[in-house]
Specification:
Elements (H helix, E strand, L loop, with lengths): L4 H11 L3 E5 L3 H13 L4 E5 L1 H7 L1 H13 L5 E8 L2 H10 L4 E4 L6 H16 L4 E6 L11 H5 L5 H11 L3 E4 L18 H11 L3 E3 L7 H9 L12 H9 L2 E6 L1 H17 L6 H23 L6
Parallel strand pairs: 1-2, 1-8, 2-3, 3-4, 4-5, 5-6, 6-7, 7-8
Helix pairs in contact: 2-4, 2-13, 5-6, 6-8, 8-9, 10-12, 12-13
Bound molecules: glyceraldehyde-3-phosphate, 1,3-dihydroxyacetonephosphate (13P) and zinc ion.
The site of 1,3-dihydroxyacetonephosphate has 14 residues, from strand 3, strand 8 and helix 12.
């Protein structure tokens, strides 16, 4: 059942859990994530980035999603991830494919981010499409010279309240220490949970955590054993994710962990049976590992059995 981000996150906000938002780029990842959501009886957010659209096509991905969704009763949100290009966000809204879109104006000055987000919200809401916006910079360790400089870009609670009041966005992505990709921290993972509590008190609406992959040891070791070069990779611990959910995060974005799972599946299959040349057998293994990782994540977020 296709539904909006607003309705799925309203329940998550009321009942204090988070919904997994998984990046999909092809048929295999899509089906693997859907298998996980169905097995766990969980609502799920399927999201496509500009890169996914460039790779597979908006129409193609949407057609696959819509066909898969028709077969199930679990609530599914089809969401545009990180729409930085206004033309792409408008195209997604106009297409009628998506039930939710993220407009990411986080690189803009506050006033411009407010103005553009407001414009997108107006267009989207007229078509019953939800909008996720972003305030603060969710950037990697390599993007800043010091921890202090990185923290200066974290989301401010007073600004967040003004932003939500002005824009009427349905969900807000905040910066509290996460980063995209497999290299999130140099030392021990840490999140500014006090800041999260302040933001949640100030805005009340569902909050979103990007860059939330765990880069689990098990997957990492498996990748390394099969020749992958990801030695310094480090993600967010399960304990931190649990705390973030407890203090008001309702949407958790996961892409990197699915990429690791895909890689483990493919590398394992190729190593274990070098005679295999059937793509269905190779990608089939990737699907199995992705489903397993997505199921673990869904349970961690507390959204299993919430469909
Ligand atoms: O936000 C980043 C997501 O992992 C999407 O990555 O832009 O390479 O598709 P991508
Ligand atoms: P990860 O790189 O931590 O999986 O984050 C994905 C994300 O935020 C997609 O928007
Ligand atoms: Zn993101």
């Amino acid at each position: 059942m296709l539904t909006t981000l607003k309705s799925v996150l309203a329940k998550a906000n009321r009942e204090n859990y988070a919904v997994g938002a998984f990046n999909i780029n092809d048929l295999e990842i899509l089906q693997a994530v859907m298998d996980a959501a169905i097995a766990e009886k969980a609502p799920v957010i399927l999201q496509t980035s500009a890169g996914a659209i460039e790779y597979a096509g908006m129409e193609e991905l949407a057609a696959l999603v819509h066909i898969e969704v028709k077969k199930t009763r679990v609530p599914v949100v089809f969401h545009l991830d990180h729409g930085k290009n206004i033309a792409l966000v408008k195209q997604a809204i106009k297409s009628g494919y998506y039930t939710s879109a993220m407009y990411d104006g986080s690189a803009l000055p506050f006033k411009d981010n407010v103005r553009t987000t407001k414009e997108i919200v107006k267009l989207a809401h007229a078509k019953n499409i939800s909008v996720e916006a972003e305030l603060g910079a969710i950037a990697g360790i390599e993007d800043f010279v010091s921890v202090k400089e990185r923290e200066a870009c974290f989301t401010d609670s007073t600004q967040a309240a003004e932003f939500v009041r002005e824009t009427h966005c349905d969900a807000l992505a905040i910066a509290i220490g996460t980063a995209h990709g497999a290299y999130k921290f140099k030392g021990a993972p840490r999140l500014d949970l006090e800041r999260l509590k302040k933001i949640k008190t100030a805005v009340k609406i569902p909050l979103v955590l990007h860059g939330a992959s765990g880069v689990p040891q098990k997957l990492k070791q498996h990748c390394l054993r099969h020749g992958c070069k990801i030695r310094e990779a480090r993600g967010i611990s399960d304990a931190l994710i649990k705390k973030a959910v407890k203090f008001g995060i309702n949407k958790i974005n996961i892409d990197t962990d699915l990429r690791l799972a895909f890689t483990v599946g493919v590398r394992h299959k190729l190593k274990e049976s070098p005679e295999t040349i059937d793509p269905r057998k190779i990608l089939g293994e990737a699907k199995k590992v992705i489903t397993q990782v997505a199921r673990e994540k869904i349970r961690l977020l507390g959204c299993a059995q919430k469909a």
